[in-house]
Design goal:
19% helix, three-stranded mixed β-sheet, alpha+beta
């Protein structure tokens, strides 16, 4: 028990603690009130300017960095505004405006001294500077080599900034970069920009541009130096890469070699470069590789308007024990086609030719019929960036379910296939052409042996509509025209029992749009649609880039007209027409094509979607 004196001291201590606690709470509340009244920023910024410059100024003006300095006094803010005016002039200069009117006003809030000040910036950019003239010169060995005349002409022809175009710093930098890239892409990998000048006259609102490219020495390809291989020998790498020693340096040749190495499947990564530190006349080509796993399985899902949802599984063995060949087996299932196939491919020889053998088992909707088929093939092939060649023996067997067709048909044939691609760039070509042909002769293996001849040819041409007006507004909006045609025929005695897989059908995403997949064929007496002996298709398409604010996007619009026919006699060919419009997108995996087409003969609208460019 406490005595009276102790109780009194305890009460006094309690009251003291209570008063100090109350005082602390009161001070904390006052401090919170004061802090709440302190503005979170020293000033805010409002920019009044035309829309083409307002967003750019708002994002890049350096004054934005100082808004959080709440202890700025009037003199410091005035100094920042003076610097901001110079900064605005520089920013507008990068956009091509060199005579702007700029006004900065600070609006204080005397009714509340603690509130943030308001900085109002008014900008009248004036007239943009236009390009009056430009000069593009060369120095170094490129000026002494007559063989480089075409390269110099192409660099000058592709110069992006033309007379009358608006000058901006971004476009000026991009034009110089593009010119340098063209220089170092062929023969001169260490070329540089030795001089450049943009002479701006604010009084006349004109710019005079000059650039000098120094080529440096010309380089030739030397020995190939390979690193990163363990499972495969260097001979395989050199045969896949197909690098020609002694040839003039070409960046595109090295990129094509790099792509061939990746496409082979043997390597997860491949990097091909030129060693420019040594002798320019025999510069080593460095090939750095990382080998792929010996085996892999790839599972895939997809969808198309032709076949609906699709499931696939692919197994690859890069070096089959005993023979050392590459084996690829694939199972694919969708609404229209179910298939399983396997292919064995030998390593390439010194000329790039490969032996190959394959088998394919397939069940497919073919016109009005369901067809089960088998195909066995053996032969040799050679593939390059622009040309493919194949010759092979092939056995076909097809069984059709439905009235009006032979139940089973077999054939053995010898074939040659050739494809030439001359497009400016893949997989997004803007000009060029492709041509392909297949020629085969064989004999049926049914109750009677009947010889036959099979021919198929296809062609695609793409033409820009702007002619020589490269880099102009007209070029961007004119677009290009793509023409495509395909024709085929099978010559055999009437009544010869040919496998339907050797005959023709058309219709679908990549042939005659507006019609179902493989729905255009020859009409039998009972109204069913079957594969025919003659094929003719054609398509014309106008592709136009979608331009926003005078800048190209990754999208294009298109309108098209397709026509196709299949028959057993040339005189019976009757074209079925599809018309429509669509869009294209440059996706990471190739062109995405979305089309809405109207089939005139069936009087129906049909949506078509596909991905990728193949020829």
């Amino acid at each position: 028990m406490f005595g009276p004196s102790k109780n009194k001291r305890f009460n006094t201590l309690t009251q003291t603690l209570f008063l100090w606690t109350a005082f602390f709470v009161w001070m904390t509340g006052c401090a919170g009130t004061v802090q709440a009244q302190t503005p979170s920023q020293a000033f805010d910024i409002e920019i009044q300017a035309p829309s083409e410059v307002q967003d750019y100024l708002q994002r890049h003006i350096e004054l934005q960095r100082y808004r959080e300095l709440t202890d700025l006094d009037a003199s410091e803010l005035a100094r920042l505004l003076t610097a901001a005016e110079r900064n605005l002039q520089d920013l507008l200069g990068t956009l091509g405006y060199f005579s702007p009117e700029i006004k900065l006003v600070v609006q204080d809030t005397p009714q509340n001294p603690k509130a943030a000040r308001h900085v109002l910036i008014t900008v009248q950019p004036g007239e943009p500077v236009k390009i009056a003239e430009f000069t593009l010169d060369f120095t170094g060995p490129i000026t002494q080599d007559e063989a480089t005349r075409e390269q110099r002409r192409a660099i000058r022809a592709n110069w992006a900034l033309r007379r009358g175009m608006a000058f901006t710093q971004a476009n000026w930098d991009a034009a110089k970069t593009q010119a340098l890239r063209q220089l170092i892409a062929q023969r001169y990998p260490i070329g540089t920009i030795s001089a450049s000048q943009a002479d701006i006259d604010p009084d006349t609102q004109t710019a005079r541009l000059s650039v000098t490219l120094d080529s440096g020495p010309a380089y030739r390809l030397g020995p190939v130096q390979i690193s990163g291989t363990q499972r495969y020998d260097e001979q395989l790498v050199t045969r896949l890469a197909q690098i020609t020693q002694g040839a003039d340096y070409s960046q595109s040749q090295l990129l094509e070699a790099q792509q061939r190495l990746l496409d082979s499947g043997f390597f997860d990564s491949a990097f091909v470069s030129l060693d420019t530190t040594g002798n320019p006349m025999a510069a080593p080509v460095l090939v750095q590789l990382r080998e792929a796993k010996l085996q892999k399985i790839v599972l895939g899902v997809g969808i198309s308007t032709d076949g609906g949802p699709r499931l696939s599984m692919e197994h690859t063995h890069h070096k089959v024990p005993g023979i050392g060949w590459q084996a690829v087996s694939k199972l694919s299932l969708d609404r229209e086609t179910q298939s399983f196939g396997t292919e064995l491919t030998a390593p390439p020889d010194a000329s790039g030719w490969r032996w190959a053998t394959s088998a394919l088992f397939q069940s497919q909707t073919s016109g009005s019929f369901e067809v089960d088929s088998q195909r066995y093939r053996a032969g040799r092939g050679q593939t390059s960036e622009r040309t493919d060649r194949n010759y092979y023996l092939q056995y076909d067997r097809a069984k059709a379910y439905g009235a009006g067709l032979p139940t089973v048909a077999d054939a053995l044939s010898a074939n040659y296939a050739w494809t030439q691609r001359n497009f400016d760039s893949l997989p997004f070509p803007a000009s060029g052409y492709g041509l392909g042909a297949e020629l085969g002769g064989g004999v049926t293996l049914g109750s009677s042996r009947e010889p036959y001849l099979r021919v198929l040819a296809r062609w695609l041409g793409i033409w820009p509509l702007a002619g020589a007006q490269v880099g102009t507004r007209a070029t961007m909006r004119a677009g290009r025209v793509a023409l495509q045609t395909e024709g085929g025929m099978v010559l055999a005695r009437t009544g010869a029992e040919l496998p339907s897989t050797q005959l023709f059908l058309t219709g679908g995403d990549n042939s005659v749009r507006g019609y179902a997949f493989r729905s255009i064929g020859t009409e039998l007496a009972n109204g069913a649609i079957a594969a025919g002996r003659y094929l003719a298709t054609g398509s014309v398409e106008w592709q136009r880039p979608i331009v926003i604010n005078d800048k190209l996007t990754d999208w294009e619009s298109t309108v098209f007209l397709d026509a196709g026919a299949v028959a057993d006699k040339p005189s019976a060919l009757r074209a079925q027409v599809g018309v429509g419009a669509g869009v294209r997108w440059k996706s990471p995996v190739g062109p995405l094509q979305i089309d809405l087409a109207y089939g005139v003969a069936v009087q129906q609208l049909r949506l078509h979607m596909s991905v990728g460019f193949t020829f």
